[in-house]
Amino acid sequence: MYLLERDRTVEESVEDVCRRWGGEFHIEVVDSWKGCIRDWGGKVVHLTMYGLPVDDVIGEIRGSGEDILVVVGSEKVPGDVYRMADYNVAVGNQPHSEISALAIFLDRYYEGEGMKRDFGGSMRIIPSKEGKRVRTS
Amino acid sequence: MYLLERDRTVEESVEDVCRRWGGEFHIEVVDSWKGCIRDWGGKVVHLTMYGLPVDDVIGEIRGSGEDILVVVGSEKVPGDVYRMADYNVAVGNQPHSEISALAIFLDRYYEGEGMKRDFGGSMRIIPSKEGKRVRTS
Asked: Which CATH number is correct for A41-136, 3.40.50.1970, 3.40.1280.10, 3.30.43.10, 3.40.190.100?
């Protein structure tokens, strides 16, 4: 995850989750979003409600076999992002949460299997009808 | 949308989106979450990472044909919610964003068609490869 501004709260929260639940998420603070996009070795996907429907382009994106950089803008996104992205992708053409757009994009990208992934953490949930069951190893 | 505490910012934002983009979303402030769940006429679905995998139960939930109240807890959720819910549903058994969980749940519930829905607003996006195209009627 590349962030334009250092945010210790986000960093600590991600580190804490990884320590307990696994996964290799890490955060890097970058000086320039343009440099970050330009230097990316694979495809750049910008999530925006103005883009092409995710279901129309996800096959092509997945099929590229390249690493994907997903760009999620929080407020007004500069026009250059639209031009620099390989794909401007809409998760619905209505206003929506950017975090939700990212979740649905990843869900489509991994064809629903992402949710079932084992991140190798020391804590694991045993799914239950009611209550909380956690196994710690 | 039922909220336990009045939040004018959320209300105004939702009203503003509906005015421009359509949809019948509205917000009601309730005194008691227990009353809200108890008085609901249909099924109550509580989204929690401790629950049963969404893909295992979504068919049964959709098949009930009843109205669905989705309960999303922001911080520590009281144990009673787990017991009062008809379904405790996990959108992945890892820590995640509650908003994303709601998005994926709705996406599964509507079998991917929710995103394509026309909310009848005066503003509509024309999906494009690059840039922003909006039609106002």
From this structure: 3.40.1280.10
Residue with tokens 């079998």: B111
- pTM of the shown model: 0.95
Residue written as tokens 């607003």? Answer: B121
CA distance A88 to A44: 9
Question: d(Cα B125, Cα B131) in Å, to the nearest integer?
Answer: 11
Are A125 and B95 a contacting pair at CB < 8 A? no
Q: Which residues of A touch B51 (CB under 8 A)?
A: 127-129
Question: What count of Cα atoms within 13 Å lies in the side-chain half-sphere of residue B19?
Answer: 6
ipTM confidence score? 0.94
Please report, for chain B, the start and end positions of each structural domain, with discontinuous segments joined by +. Answer: 40-136
**How near does any CA of chain B get to the CA of A122, in Å?**
12
pLDDT, tens digit (0-9, with 9 covering 90-100), for A19-44: 999 998 989 999 999 999 999 999 99
Task: Return the bridge partners of B68, or none.
Answer: B43
> Which residues fall within 8 angstroms of residue B123, CB to CB, at 6 or more apart?
B20, B21, B134, B135, B136
Strands A134-136 and A123-125: antiparallel
Q: Quick one: tokens of A39?
A: 């230097």
Q: What's the rounded Cα separation, in Å, for the pair A100 and A113?
A: 17
CB-CB contact of B96 with B51 (8 Å):
no
CATH class in words for B40-136: alpha beta
Average pLDDT, chain B: 95
Closest residue of B to A116, CA-based? B92
Euclidean distance between the first and final Cα of chain B, in Å?
A: 28
